[in-house]
């Protein structure tokens, strides 16, 4: 079914009887050429591009819960390509270009909204670093502009400009950045993959990997054994757990990250704003709620919920940046499990097990990467060569000393 305004009108006039489920609910087959473990954004996008761009068939996505139950449905929905390093910037700009056409491509309303992001700076040194970042962005074809304090006073008068400790001196803006409806992204890719024959199998947890003579030949699941030609792992917060089934130990730790939403307010926040002197970022949803977050909880966990000290820490950041947030009531908060890599950058690579491929280490930046990550992983699975924008994301970079340390703050997950 093609979605369109006309279709909505037709269904409205005929009692909404024509809508169909967005995807089938098939039973698993005994063998697939490609098995993707993980029905989050990255797994679904991988299956979609494998079928659509690389013309592959006989593909399954195995998801232990329901599609979109992981971080893809838990993040704060920010998309941007304001990275500095050569290993990162072209990849995230590629992702941004895919975002810009995503809804037309998948014929699904994922509410991609290029409402901009502003990273605030508070010192002269930080301004220089942001100017450098902006120049690097422009080199890879992205947009960037430096805003003065006067510009910001016009755009966001509610900010605490004259805070004695963290005066706001200006900001780096990317106008093409913004937000997208996170679960709508999962549903759009799922529907697109299903339409191209991909079997999306929910409630199907992978519990083991069958490896013979150094080659993976299938996976054990809660719905029985499934044979596989190639297996791609895209399980985000469960990366270490799933890869241990193949005897692998990853340079990744799992940590909780929380997000928060306030009661609905009138339109206030112009796009996404990030605090440069602490870890706090905020946007406003189309329903009016302020959507914000900050640091990870700082201890290893597989629980999809966080603890109160970080709630306090995040809200302190919010109060320092925009004291009026103290008048808003917090509506809800939740957590997701982040796959924190030791340099803050992802891994998209083959493994030394023939036919086993890995995609993970997204830390808390993987939502914006969803389209490019899916595309690059599909490229790797289909051609056995890395996509041109993802060549830095090799597993062995930690052993070889070629880390992609975007923030330059050291190999500690609690500093990223
Ligand atoms: C609170 C929060 C805020 C965030 N904010 C942002 C943001 O603003 N911008 C941004 O770019 N990123 C953000 N992120 C990060 C982003 O959400 C993740 O990096 C990204 O979603 C991870 O990729 P994914 O969508 O494939 O993960 P997931 O949706 O977690 O997908 C992995 C899937 O694998 C499944 N799985 C696990 N184990 C197995 C198994 N054994 N068998 C079968 N299936 C299995 C899980 O059930 C899950 O559905 C945020 C994350 C959180 C939690």
UniProtKB/TrEMBL annotation:
Keyword Plastid part of the UniProt annotation: no
Chief location of this protein?
cytoplasm
Q: Key word Signal present in the record?
A: no
Mind listing the GO biological process terms from this record? Answer: tetrahydrofolate metabolic process
Kindly name one Pfam family recorded for this protein.
Answer: DAO
Q: Give Gene Ontology CC terms.
A: cytoplasm
This one is known as Sarcosine oxidase subunit beta
List the top taxonomic levels of the source.
Bacteria, Pseudomonadati, Pseudomonadota, Alphaproteobacteria, Rhodobacterales
